[in-house]
Amino acid sequence: MKERGALLNVEVAFKVVRSDSVLNYIADLRQKCRSGDWQEAIQTALSGCTIVTRYNQKTYRVERVDFGSSPSTTFDKQGTQMSYAEYYKTRYNENITDPNQPLLINKDRKTGIEVALIPELCQLTGLTDTMRSDFRLMKDLAGIVHTDADRKVKECKNLFSTFAKNEKCQEKQKAWHCKFQENPAEVKGYKYDAGNLVMGATASGAPNKFDIERSARELDRKIQAKMFSQPALNTWGIFHGDRDAQSANSFKSTMKQCLDQVGYES
What we know:
Blueprint (H helix, E strand, L loop, with lengths): L16 E5 H11 L5 H9 L3 E4 L5 E3 L2 E3 L7 E4 L2 E4 H9 L10 E5 L6 E4 L4 E4 L3 H4 L2 H11 L3 H17 L1 H10 L19 E3 L10 E3 L7 H4 L22 H17 L5
Antiparallel strand pairs: 1-9, 2-3, 2-9, 4-7, 5-6, 7-8, 10-11
Helix pairs in contact: 1-2
């Protein structure tokens, strides 16, 4: 709700889809768990994950991995027994190359109906820890996901243009008695002052207060000072093994240096 009435908020959203299939991911996990329980590792890694099917680009949440079934497993298709491999070939013209792969089970939370998916035909979504640690990848991804206002407005205009050209969308708009404008509505925005951040007094006794917005670039440096309310750390200790004495002493020295820098009594 805005001053001019109810408005529809359109947000530009993204879902990161990996290029490799779930089957490749399963094979990689199995290779890493040669000496352990690879089925348990795969079950833990995939349960709760969101995947995308390559044949219709729909997203599904994996309830569990069924190792007792495979693409050759049959199910009742309108009174006829049909294997999953046959079904996906007939329905989507997809060929299954690995007949021994397990099935991914998706369960509808409302109806309880389960759907079996083929890992070979699915792709994982989201980022791995290795991807997140790749600075260049995250920088390129941020340029796409975290777009500025002008690019978001352009994306919205493209969406409205699609609505105007698509026959099914036009039919729905007529049935619902609604119409999308070519340009997004402009609303008046309000900007509030960030205010001041008050730290503890300086060595001379003068108050240490600074404007948050004006000091945005120096905020990390300016908060490395005594806090407004700061109790003394009179009792503290470090527990370590005999072989870690050198590391403990190094940590103690660094800790003392940091406490002195921000004015802690210790």
